[in-house]
Amino acid sequence: MSYKIIIADDHPLARGALHQTVAKLYPNSSISEASSLEHLIEQISFAPNIDLILLDLSMPGVRGFSGLLYLRSQHPNIPIAICSATEDATTIRRALDFGASGFIPKSSNLDVMSLAIHSIMMGEVWIPDDIDLNVLDKDEDMIRRMSSLTPQQMRVLMMVSEGLLNKQIAYRLSVSEATIKAHVSAILQKLNVESRTQAVIVANRLGVVQSADLAV
Question: What is the rounded CA–CA span in Å between residue 214 and residue 60?
């Protein structure tokens, strides 16, 4: 069987292990690698008919679940499996809540990775056997709210978390400052918060962004 699969991770060893696994599993497949979100988006634009993206939670352009949320909004038909060194039940459950088709711990051996990838390619949602997803997530309502943000709103929220002003965000996105103000207002309304600071605190708590300075 021939598939188009992209491995998105900034660590060469991690990409190599996944590449080896996919190549052995599907010898005739087209396997691409990306070391940043920008590179990944570029590759998708060149070959839109992607069968699977294997996505790390931490690489240039990706903060926590921000990359997953952005890709799910932009390319809802492409299955995305998270491959991460963070393997706790809360992270795995939130990855699924945010639209991942599966979660593969980086600590998995090649046989487990093969089983996981094949299961996801067959349309199943795969997680490790020892993970219990029945734990109550107190942020379940906020996760739904965060998932409702558009791709552009997510980009704006990420830049707000960096401490950028509206005019700086407008310059980066090549839009008017009024457009950014409208996006910020929409973000606050969707998240049911009153300020930019509160929005960043919520995003940080959910693992959508990782901000060292919340005073924005």
Answer: 20
